[in-house]
Amino acid sequence: MSTNKLIPALRFPEFKNSEEWYRIKLKEFAKFFRGLTYGADDTSSNGLLVLRSGNIQNDTLVLNKDLVFVGKECPEDLKLLNGDVVICMSNGSKALVGKNAEYRGEYAGGITVGAFCSIMRPKNKFTKYFLQSDAYQSFIALSIGGGNINNLKNSDLEEFKCAAPKNPKEQNKIASCLSSLDEVIAAHSKKLDLLKDHKKGLMQNLFPQMSESGFARLKDDRMNGEDKILKSKNPVNPDSDNVPTLRFKEFVKDGEWVEKPLDDICKLVRGPFGGALKKEIFVKEGYAVYEQSHAIYSDFSSFRYYIDEDKFNELKRFSVKSGDLIMSCSGTMGKFALVPDNNKAGVINQALLKLTVKKGFDKLFIKMTLEADNNQEKLLSQSVGGAIKNVVSVFQIKELPLMTPSLQEQQKIASCLSSLDALITAQAEKIEQLKLHKKGLMQGLFPKIND
User: Fold this and answer.
1) Are 324 and 354 in contact, with CB atoms under 8 Å apart?
2) How many CA atoms, within 13 angstroms, populate the side-chain half-sphere of residue 246?
3) Pairwise CA distance, residues 216 & 404, whole Å
4) Distance from C-alpha of 208 to C-alpha of 203, rounded to nearest angstrom
5) Residue-level pLDDT, tens digit, the chain, 451 residues
6) 184 Cβ partners below 8 Å, 6+ apart?
7) Cα angle: 160, vertex 166, 171; to 5 degrees
8) Which of 7, 26, 6 is nearest to 139 (CA)?
9) Whole-angstrom distance, CA of residue 20 vs CA of residue 209
10) Given this chain, do its domains 22-164 and 212-243+258-404 carry the same CATH topology?
């Protein structure tokens, strides 16, 4: 048995000389209810809202998308109450099992959780912080290891060993302190969401909303040997699909944007066949192999694989230069990253597409255009496969129609949106710093159990 005293490193002055904390099991502080079981025949367009594991994101409950409603009776115990905690109990990804978020009574109608989730109904506000501790993370990792892969039971959570102060006043003091910090994090998260929504709205107005038939028309023209640019008959028609809703004043009289296939804007090169980059050819140092993660996270600080000079020269067609765009083409599709200045010399792997922007077009503007919702929909609509999507062919991507103004207007738009991106990045970093501060505070406020 462990002999360590359960005394936290940090303690509020009025409790400094209080007795040590005591060991408990989580079932002493909360009740657990497994979610509602329902079938496809029970779903409807309205009725009882059922939250699933996908509604738990970044320690909060998402109540405005990916919602499922059922027309089915629900036991009273399974209806969410303000202060309940929703826990993911089963998921294809181990990383999601155990994730949890508090329900704050935000939804006006009936609401519950699905069978892959559980509800923790806590005894007090202090209880929920057991599920945010390092001890809980270690417990989850052990519980879903071995034969019980990716699944938890309510009985598992009930037996989770915790430590709590005996004095309810100390429990409340800790909960009040951490709740205040939670409110600050929530306020900054709301600001981040507003910035992202502002950018999304700005892009919808700064970019023309292309006609639905554009892709089909361009494809037909190319198949018929007519490599033409689609334009409206009226060069300065404010009602045209080829004119954005918002425009910087110096470009108001510039007329329509023009619609061109991506092939006219970028040179496209899909990564080499998988056999060209086998693990046995990799070396410890040399020319870098760019992977999907570089496109998805826009992080070029590290590389897992390298090839020697002979292999690099053999694959020079796939080499990456500063200013190139790379796109993820398998699984997580359609993510773009701009290769930075002074990039590490190397080649793309088979899961990437390299786009070298041609003269007359701004690299950052083209990246932003490709990231716009309507173009993302077109890119993803060209994918095939089951759970893992893959680009059909470079030829189909080449046919993607993009609308562009003059180079000067491209640069103005890119500069505007880049400034907004910088604010979004700074806000996201501020939230991460607050979360790190909370984590450190919790490590001090909760004693470590060495069992």
Assistant:
1) yes
2) 9
3) 18
4) 9
5) 445 689 999 999 999 999 999 999 999 999 999 999 999 999 998 899 999 999 999 899 999 888 999 999 999 999 999 999 999 999 888 889 999 999 999 898 899 999 999 999 999 999 999 999 999 999 998 888 755 668 899 999 999 999 999 999 999 999 999 999 999 999 999 999 999 999 999 999 999 875 555 445 544 554 454 443 333 333 445 456 789 999 999 999 999 999 999 999 999 999 998 788 988 999 999 999 999 999 999 999 999 999 999 999 999 999 999 999 999 988 788 899 999 999 999 999 999 999 999 999 999 999 999 998 888 887 776 555 444 455 557 888 898 899 999 999 999 999 999 999 999 999 999 999 999 999 999 999 999 887 5
6) 434
7) 80
8) 26
9) 64
10) yes
| CATH of region 212-243+258-404 | 3.90.220.20
Record the tokens describing residue 233, joined without a space.
């008959």
Beta bridge partners of 92: none
Tokens of 306: 């390298």
CATH of domain 22-164: 3.90.220.20
CA distances from 419 to 179, 191, 400, 413, 439 (A): 33, 16, 27, 10, 31
Bridge-based pairing of strands 85-88 and 117-122 is antiparallel
Q: What is the CA radius of gyration of the chain?
A: 27
Q: Report domain extents, the chain.
A: 22-164, 212-243+258-404
Rounded to two decimals, the pTM is 0.81
Does residue 340 sit in helix, strand or coil?
Answer: coil
Length of the chain: 451
| C-alpha pair distances (Å), 6 with each of 163, 175, 277, 439, 447 | 7, 18, 54, 19, 6
